[in-house]
Records
---
Amino acid sequence: MTTPVLLIHGHPFDHTLWDPQAAALRAAGHQVFTPDLRGYGAGPPPGDVTLLSDFAADLAAVLDEQHADRAVVGGVSMGGQIAMEFFRLFPERVAGLILADTSPLADTDEQREVRLRTAERMLAEGMTWYADDVRDKMITPYHVTAKPDVDAHVRQMILGTAPAGAAAALRGRARRPDYRSTLATCRVPTLVLVGAEDVYTPVAQARLIHELITGSELVVIDQAGHLPGLEQPEVVNDTLLKFLDQ
């Protein structure tokens, strides 16, 4: 039996972010888990702050429920940072890593303040303003019009996220550690993915991760922004299958 694959969505989305990849991997015979995170979708309810370690502990419990000792752990954006935290806490449970459009760096003071202000605004005003603000940043501006189904899916996920869950995650993410020293210890097979036009976690961030993890593979997805799995699903699916079948 192949090693299970645990795919972690980003903020402020839900498990359907990984739908194209989960379908392709399952069709190829892989066991795939795509849970909703705490405070997102059908995930457990949040408190005021959800640390990345809280998410990681929840995911370890998901593997326990599935009687899976180890998994290939993958995540996009915040999900990638949760995957790094999972590796930091439970390295013996990680058979491989897939780190997509993410950064190992802790927030600067300025970035931390922006996250906290965003959390407060979400609680006060809801998610519509945020969906409008990130519309042409989560995916490339030309795909907003060229791929309306993708644009609609991204917006649906954001508007379906409870402000309390999103705010709790932002507060916890503002407290995250720097993962560079953790990644430097990583010796499991690792795939680093990034959209060539990602404005949130640019290619330079992916290259940093690639340089930190000995033997990792770096793949840059052309004509994609922060969510290449939705913008270029066939390319990403093929890349994941090649990595998992090595």
---
Amino acid sequence: MIRGLYTAASGMLSAMRRMELVTNNLANAQTVGFKQDRSALSTFDEVMILQDGTPAATTRNQELGQLGMAAVAEEPMIDFTQGAIQETSRDFDLALEGPGFFTVQTPDGVRYTRDGGFTRDALGRMTTTEGHLLLDTAGNPITIPAGKMQVNEDGTVRVEDQPIAQINVVEFTLDQPLRKVGANEFAPRNDGDQPRASAGTAVHQSSIEISNLDMAGAQTTMLELQRAYQASQRLIQYQDEMVGRAVNEIARPIG
């Protein structure tokens, strides 16, 4: 394959994949507890360029240096930095300040989320907007009886000043311990990192954590990716024209 076409095509593909990531981030700018994805470019393995211009059998190839073939978009990394906390007037809205996650029960097993926009179902249980049950430290759904509910910073849930449960807020050790599984929830990456109680996370009632998306940065990145895609597209057109001219010159009759 012609190296210039390969390099330009890989640039277009990388820009397209990163554009999809930025577009998804922008689409979730108003999603409660959303954590943006970040991605960067890396090069394929470099190859050694050798000079082989002598017919002498005793002369070895001479190393000229390394050549990078193309770039590729790396696997997205989740940005778990804290989002701003916004006060609301709803008692069931909860926000986390710190590295912790709420623990919820889903049909696919236990999942983790920063989305504290909870509600109460017909049985009085606290649920996410998807209907997934919020769990306490014993692994049971939290049922709220009639009365005024209060939530302390340590996650203790009180109704009419009587404690009824403690929200299971956990954290992880690794830098990228979780993967996104939809519904604004996370699942472990199966690398052995186990959740533990998060003593350094405070729960704030009648508040939500808004998305940690850097809106200005995302829009700037989108413009940069559009220009990079268009530049790679023009390079492919130039390469195609050059190949066409070369083929015509070779095919032209001599004399």
